[in-house]
Amino acid sequence: MKIILKKVRKQTPFTWINPIKVEPLALEYLKAVIDELVEGINSNIELNPNFDLNSDINSDFNIECEIIDDLYHKAEVTGDIILLNGYNTARSQMMLEARQLKFKMPQAILIGSGVDVQVNWALYESSDLDYLVISNRLCDFKNLIEHIVLKKQVELKGVLCLKEMKEMTTLSDERDHDALTVFENIRPSRTYFEQIKSQTRYLLYEQVALVKRSHGCPYGCEFCFCKQLNQGHFVSRSYETLRQEMEDLKADYYWVVDDVFIHNAAEADAFIEAFKKSSFKMIVYLRADFIVKYAAYMASIRRAGIIEVIVGFESIKSSFLEDFNKGYTSDVNTEAITVLKQAGLSFTALFMVDISDDHSDFKALKQYIRKHQIQNFTFSIFTPLRGTDLYKRYEKDILDFKCEHYDFLHLVLKPLKMHVMAFKMDFMALFVFQFCHSKSARQLIYKVLKDSFKHCFKR
């Protein structure tokens, strides 16, 4: 039996640059579940040749599981079970690929997964997928695979069978499933990462491994999709177990993809204690208000291995931060810049322009970056995502409903103070400014062009 786990991606305006190329960590967790299941079954068969699998499978039982990610290599998708995993921008692409696969292999069982499926499962009801995994609990995915492969009769919590749903005359708008209450003790399979490690990067950092310590977010920023996941619950594991997992990885850099890596003094102390004798180079997310409140910790966390901090500054306007429940005013962002520089910590500032902005606001943002000598920064456009309260609030004002445009680089709402084209031009001008102002941005472009030429000559 062959199981394919495929990362579905949709091209964006930055696809040709690909400033960030990382492993499909979610699929590596799912592969680990399958590997563990197969190992357990084969162990039972070896110990007891008469082991009853409650299925047609005999002692030659074998499962081949493969990860496919078009970002690294194109491969023909053929299998008995095919799981498609993608973000909200890949929703249409996932359904298109499901239709093509079903036409090509009618007997194949197709599964949809990913954070968009977890929150917006109803948008996939009309697809050719057979199952939707709407829970982020790995045990729920394991039950589904056991149900399909071993014909095991188990209650499929956190899983929707679309065939059964389509036979119903009425559908509930809500689908209940258990939230993850503890961080599950399973390490992702890193065999795929080892294959593509040399191609991975986060901006100028190369050979970057992803690691995860928590699910959800303890904060409530309204524009963020993260608080919709795991039914709003925040769960984490110890920094010690994170360090132990990283010790078994051979990477130059480690990107902790938690929405917030450290958010109080107790966590800061625990992180420093766990990593103070290590030599890892880590990229993490921290909030500006944490950085300011615990400024005394910044030098210590740098010595413990944090080399790059990603900070969601969002806006230089306090009104924006207040409207979307960020939890602090813009002067905190400014103070955080000073703290990070004094601690010798490199950082990337994330800025978001709003539909209430006018030309003067775009100009003020560039002036702010110059004034505070911010070297690394990115820009996005405020975008209400499906499944959030903000989407409901702004739905009547949406101009563009194409899911692939909800990448925070497209304007999907009508600007309040500018013509649509003028807003787009000012947003594009920010990236021209970035190229001129940021040395690292120029280095990245030059490196991508150089690598592209090398690749062409090799061919």
Automatic annotation (TrEMBL):
This is Radical SAM protein. SUPFAM superfamilies: Radical SAM enzymes. It comes from the Bacteria. The keyword Signal does not apply. Signal peptide: none annotated. Pfam families: Radical_SAM. CDD domains: Radical_SAM. Keywords: Iron, Iron-sulfur, Metal-binding, Methyltransferase, S-adenosyl-L-methionine, Transferase.
